[in-house]
């Protein structure tokens, strides 16, 4: 809940105005039974028509004022709630975008999506009720009780005996419901994960005829979440019928006692009528409190989940010169005996460091100068892409050092480091926008730079055949482009900024050999000052590199030129034989 109050503090004046208006509306509502009692007991018996009209109009005016103030307060409350929700989603998005790799893995993408959507909506509902119902319900309860005590203390004792019991029930249910709603939101993460997997992999599911299997898997997760939600809702629904039972019983007792006293002449009829109205207001206040506790239980669980992300300590800070390592030798890019293992995220914000795990990289060392190229080759899962992730500081090494331009990557500010790179990842994203916007990617590049990048990436072949050229609009994830077209578009994006370091991570797997070779020749010619790192499965893609790093199971099993590796590295030689028929 601290998150909600922190977010509301930014709009404290607007929130205070909403609360004040709602307070005035509730006070005017509390006046209505009192005016009615005065008309019945004091004005009507005298037959004073002008006074009856006056007090009747006053009552009508109070009702209109009450209605208008409630409408104004509710509108202001909704507006404030939307502003708070916007700020929370914006902060959550910014924090998510800047999370280091191990923390992102720990929370998990499905959990972050549900925190951004359903959790933020729960918080928005709570903010709205805090300004409206949380003012009206207690005021009706307290104000109705006070007015009842003023009008007839003896009848009010019936209510006084009921209130402590009802409040204790509400508090007990709240304490029970809060952890249950936390579990509901956690199970929602699982539903989101399965849904996302199926939407992303729908072609695989259909191709393998696993639609029914995936339906059952989703139904299981959805049923589990539904059961938890029903259990939480059942617990939170306990106060409502219990309150109705107690209050209706109390109301019957008030009517019985009040009628007896009216018959005996010790109580005016208007008092009993007004008292019953106040009793109903008190009942409405108690029911409102029940709704508040239900909403706040859900919102508190959601706010805690959002706050876990927002308060997550950044595990990657910029190191000062005394803390940062210095390279042991020259090299624009330098890896020195690097070891690394991935953390095992549990979906929480705590404890990203776990027990000893299998290393993804072990003892990796190499150097690369400006204008040189490094090819990284090896079987799937051997750590090729992990080297790229460490170089760009998506993760930090367990031991050893990674250096760029003679400086520890941990000593760079994140933006400063990553502006040096142009990257085409193995599973790059084509956004639903024009091809021009996908290549430019918000960098404000001129037409000449965009055109050169498209030509070097061999994407001009198909872009020039489109009626609208670079203004052609790509569908979500590039669904209207072939695999090779998407890869060339992504390479063009990496080339467009003329980076100091160009990384192509398996970016030619969907290209034919002729197009791949033409693209590599263009890059070698027009990006001669850049350091090139090419991650590939094909020997033909890396054999012309200045150096080749051969990976196997997270270790370097060969490092040198193509000719040197044919002589010294058996795994590389075997790969050449299998792919190219080259006998050694």
What features would you describe in this structure?
- The chain is of the alpha/beta class.
- Among the domains are: 2-310, ABC transporter type 1, transmembrane domain (ABC transporter transmembrane region fold); 427-498, Rossmann fold (3-Layer(aba) Sandwich).
- The protein has helices spanning 2-9, 12-43, 49-98, 101-107, 109-131, 133-151, 153-200, 202-207, 211-236, 239-264, 269-310, 384-391, 414-418, 435-440, 447-456, 460-463, 483-496, 513-526, 539-542, 562-568, 570-580, and strands spanning 333-340, 361-368, 373-377, 399-404, 407-408, 421-424, 501-505, 531-536, 547-552, 555-560.
- A 6-stranded mixed β-sheet has the order 6-7-8-3-9-10, with helices on both faces. A 4-stranded antiparallel β-sheet has the order 2-1-4-5, with helices on one face.
- Helix 2 runs antiparallel to helix 11 (269-310).
- The protein is elongated and about 115 Å long.
- It starts with a helix and ends with a helix.
Q: Summary?
A:
This protein has helices at 2-9, 12-43, 49-98, 101-107, 109-131, 133-151, 153-200, 202-207, 211-236, 239-264, 269-310, 384-391, 414-418, 435-440, 447-456, 460-463, 483-496, 513-526, 539-542, 562-568, 570-580, and strands at residues 333-340, 361-368, 373-377, 399-404, 407-408, 421-424, 501-505, 531-536, 547-552, 555-560. With 584 residues, it is of the alpha/beta class.
